[in-house]
Design a protein that fits this description.
4 helices, elongated, mainly alpha
């Protein structure tokens, strides 16, 4: 909690209560990705290249909404 408080007070001048959840969401996003750093683009590229969609199951699926 102290990390979130320090980050909010250090970055924003005024914190409006109605936007507090957005500030906390941004803090959680940054906190959870603090170790990705430079590898983030490489991880995205690898995920995009190695993704193999299963077209056959989508074609024959009754729940497909595409």
């Amino acid at each position: 909690i102290s990390n979130a408080k320090r980050q909010l007070l250090g970055v924003y001048y005024k914190i409006k209560p109605e936007y507090l959840q957005y500030y906390l969401n941004q803090f959680c996003y940054k906190f959870n990705r603090r170790y990705f750093g430079k590898n983030q683009f490489e991880r995205l590229l690898i995920a995009a290249v190695t993704y193999a969609p299963d077209f056959k199951s989508r074609i024959y699926s009754r729940n497909y909404c595409g």
